[in-house]
Structure formats: structure tokens, C-alpha cells
Specification:
The chain has helices at residues 43-46, 51-70, 82-86, 90-101, 115-127, 166-173, 181-201, 215-224, 232-235, 242-254, 257-261, 274-292, 304-313; strands at 3-9, 13-22, 26-36, 75-80, 111-112, 137-142, 147-152, 156-162, 209-213, 238-241, 296-300. The chain is α/β, with parallel strands linked by helices. A six-stranded mixed sheet has the order 8-7-6-9-11-10, sandwiched between helices. A five-stranded mixed sheet has the order 3-2-1-4-5, with helices on both faces. Helix 2 runs parallel beside helix 4, helix 6 crosses helix 7 and helix 8 (215-224) crosses helix 10 (242-254). The radius of gyration is 18 Å and the shape is globular.
Length: 314
């Protein structure tokens, strides 16, 4: 297999990885990019994609297709996750992706994957560079519409996809700016119920290391390390002790959106939803400390996107 293109289309963002396969089954990045398109805008309430969300996603995907043609991509895979699983009009999404992706590889189209498949891809992408002595790992992929909790060492042993994510939680509970104490309490109740279900399926007390992936986690690490701007190389495999992590989360939850927007590492597309993500991270940290004695978060820039590319290369 030569050069591959991987696309992860989530509730909040759409991301592209163009990579080459190198010795040992690893990947060498050619190009990596992320855009916030908020495909899942209103899906939790309406059950379908908004026309403007589909238009934003098509614009980004068309640019990605041009990049893949320019870089000579030979095979591609595009996966869609939580929002697309839930949308009644997802056929409109598939028709759009077939039109755009077909210009790169004839017959290519997006595929909706299950929460179990999403968890496996996230795990495979996240743990490849970690020391096996730190296993078992609990990998948490905190997305816009869902949160995947995955346990494993060399291979995945248990997983669960919970219908809690930063976009879904914000739209459902966090309506004020900043959110009221009552809204935060309601959000915590939703998160705890979702995590209780996840922990019944995944024995996180067996884990030695917590690995967080996706934009909420990486942004929290950047803020905890007081980075003046987002620096993916410095964030990758960074460690955040719980004291610093929880301090950053508390600040974001209570912070007005205008103040969040002035934070150097903050992407403008995360400003309105990262408070919801911070609530989920706080509840995860509390549970993992009590259940497994874990006291820090390891943050990886490699995640489901890398897992998708590896699945093509295989």
C-alpha cells in the first residue's frame, strides 16, 4: 500500500491525515489538518442534519479532496461517527461524500461506524507509541457527540461508547453564558449516568494509565502547560497531573465565552463547547482516581484518525 488518505468526520470537526506506510507497519505523516464544521449542529434536538452544517462539511471535504489529489493519495477511508449515526437524513450526507470523494478514488464514500468500531480505531491510533510497561491503558476519546472508553494493553479488551460529548452536552444542558450552577449540575448528572453505564462495561479499575485523545483533551493540556499558542508537538504525549487538570477545567466551566476566546491555544470552534468537555473530563478524573488510583492524564495527538489510516495500510 502506498500513500493513503484518512478522514474522520465527527460531530464537531472533520480531520484529514495523508500518510505513507513505513517499515514496521508505522505511518509517516505527509499532511494533517483539522477544521471545525459542527456537522452535529442541532442533531441531538432535531434528529437530522441542518442544511448549513452539511454545506460547511462539503466545503471542507472538497478542500481535503483537492489536497489528496495533489499529494497522490492511492487509497482512502472516511468514517463518520456519532452525529451521522443519529441523523435521519444521513442519505443526504452520503450522497454528498460520494460526489466529493469519488473525484479522488472512484467509488469512495463515507461509512458510518459503530461505537465499538470507533473505540477500536481510537485505541489503535493512541497506544502505538506508548511504553507497554504502562499498560493496561484506558483510552478516552472525548468527541462532540459521544465519548469512547476503551481498555487494553497490546489489544483492546473492553470498550463502550457513551452518548455524551461536548456538543451534545452543551446543547442539552449549558444554555447560559457562563452556565448557571443549575445547568452545570444538570450536565454533571447526565455525564455521571453515561459514565456509570460505561464503567459497567469497561473495568477501568484495571488500568494503570489514562490516555486522552481529541480536541478537548489536547486543548486542556495546552492550557495546563500555559502554552501561548497551540503546539501539537509539545502536546503529544504530554502529562497533566490531576491538580492542574481540574484547575483548568473549573476555570473553563465558569468562564464566559468571550474570555475563553482570548486564550492562546483555544480554537474558535471549541469556545462554546469546551465547558461541556471540561465537565466530562472532571467526572472522568474523579472516577478514575477513585476506581483505579490514577493521578494524571497522558494526552496523545494520535487517535482515531491514525487508526483509520492504519486500517487502510493493513
Amino acid at each position: 500500500m502506498g500513500r493513503v488518505g484518512a478522514i474522520d468526520c465527527g460531530t464537531n470537526s472533520i480531520r484529514l491525515l495523508i500518510a505513507d506506510r513505513v517499515d514496521g507497519g508505522k505511518l509517516a505523516d505527509v499532511h494533517r489538518e483539522m477544521r471545525i464544521v459542527r456537522l452535529g449542529q442541532g442533531v441531538d434536538a432535531t434528529g437530522q442534519f441542518a442544511s448549513e452544517a452539511l454545506a460547511r462539511t462539503k466545503d471542507a471535504l472538497a478542500d481535503y479532496a483537492e489536497l489528496m489529489r495533489h499529494h497522490g493519495v492511492e487509497a482512502l477511508r472516511m468514517v463518520a461517527t456519532s452525529a451521522t449515526r443519529d441523523a435521519a437524513n444521513r442519505d443526504d450526507f452520503f450522497a454528498m461524500t460520494a460526489e466529493v470523494l469519488g473525484s479522488v478514488v472512484p467509488g469512495a464514500v463515507a461509512e458510518v461506524i459503530t461505537g465499538t468500531e470507533e473505540a477500536a480505531l481510537s485505541f489503535n491510533g493512541a497506544v502505538g507509541e506508548l511504553d507497554s510497561a504502562a499498560a493496561p491503558f484506558v483510552v478516552v476519546d472525548l468527541g462532540g457527540g459521544s465519548t469512547e472508553v476503551v481498555l487494553g494493553s497490546d489489544e483492546l479488551t473492553a470498550s463502550h461508547s457513551a452518548d455524551i460529548g461536548c456538543v451534545r452536552l452543551t446543547e442539552r444542558c449549558l444554555h447560559s453564558d457562563p452556565p448557571t450552577a443549575e445547568e452545570v449540575a444538570a450536565a454533571r448528572d447526565v455525564v455521571r449516568k453515561g459514565l456509570d453505564e460505561a464503567f459497567r462495561a469497561v473495568p477501568v479499575e484495571q488500568a494503570r494509565t489514562w490516555v486522552g485523545v481529541a480536541g478537548t483533551m489536547t486543548t486542556l493540556s495546552a492550557l495546563a502547560h500555559k502554552m501561548p499558542a497551540y503546539d501539537s508537538e509539545a502536546i503529544h504525549l504530554s502529562r497533566v497531573p490531576f491538580g492542574e487538570l481540574l484547575s483548568v477545567c473549573e476555570g473553563l466551566i465558569a468562564m464566559p465565552r468571550a474570555e475563553r476566546a482570548r486564550l492562546g491555544p483555544m480554537h474558535e470552534g471549541r469556545v462554546d463547547v469546551i465547558g461541556g468537555g471540561a465537565i466530562i473530563v472532571e467526572e472522568l478524573a474523579d472516577a478514575l482516581r477513585k476506581r483505579g488510583g490514577i493521578e494524571e492524564l497522558v494526552v496523545s495527538e494520535h487517535d482515531i484518525l491514525d487508526g483509520i489510516a492504519l486500517s487502510i495500510a493493513d
